[in-house]
Amino acid sequence: MVGKLGILLSGRGSNFLAIADHIASGRLQANIAIVISNRADAPGIAAAQARGCKTAVIPSKGRERSGHDAEVVAALRAAEVDLVVLAGYMRLLSAEFVGAFPQRILNIHPSLLPAFPGLDAQQQALDYGAKITGCTVHFVDDQLDHGPIIVQRPVPVLPGDSVAALSARILKEEHIAYSEAIALVLARKCEIQGRCVAVRG
Ligand code: GRF
After folding, report:
1. Consecutive 10-residue runs of the chain (201 residues): their mean pLDDT?
2. pTM (two decimals)
3. Best substitution site from 108, 172, 178, 182 to test ligand 1's pocket, by max atoms within 8 Å of Cβ?
4. Which of 66, 109, 128, 196 has the most CB atoms at less than 10 Å from its CB?
5. Which atom of ligand 1 is closest in space to residue 86's alpha carbon?
6. How many Å apart are CA 94 and CA 99, to the nearest integer?
C-alpha cells in the first residue's frame, strides 16, 4: 500500500515541491493526500494547487491553538493520511495534535539538532562560528525541534558565508533528506527506542 502524506506548510513550499518531484519521478513511493496551509498567501499552497493537489487553507491568525489544531487534525483524518509532514509549518503543535498521530508526524529543521533549534537556525550557526551545520528530519514530540532523529545531512560553513548562501546549500540537502526519511518511515524501517531511531535494512 502506498502511504498517504498530509503536508503542512506556511510559506515558500520548496520542501513540498521536492517531495512532490520525488513522487512524480518514482523515487518516493507515496501519495500526497492533502496540503494544508495556515496562511492563505503561502506560495506553497499556490504551488500545490498548480500541481493539482488537494489543498486546504485553515487560517490560524487570531485563533486559539486548540480550536485551530482540531480543525487541522479533522482535515488530515478526513484525507486518511498515514503520515503528517511539516514542511515549513510555522506553528507549534498542541499536545492533542501530536497525540492524534503518534510517531506519525515528521519535521525538518535547518541545523544538526540539538544545535540551533528554533528560528533563524542558519544565522545561529554563523553567529556561533560553527564549521559544520546541516539539516535534521525528526519525529515530532511535544517540545520544539526535539523528537527522535531519523536523518541528518551535514553542510560545511564556508569562510565569508552569508545567511542566504548557507541557507541555500542547506536547503539542497533538506530536499534530499526529507524524502529519504519519509521513505524509511513509510516502509516501517524506523523503530523508536527512547531518543534513538534504529533503522532496519
Ligand atoms: C526550511 O528551511 C525548513 O527546514 C524549515 O522551514 C524552511 C521551509 O522552507 N522548517 P520551504 O517552505 O520548504 O521552502
Report:
1. 95 98 98 98 98 98 95 98 97 96 97 98 98 98 95 98 98 98 97 96 80
2. 0.97
3. 108
4. 109
5. 10
6. 9
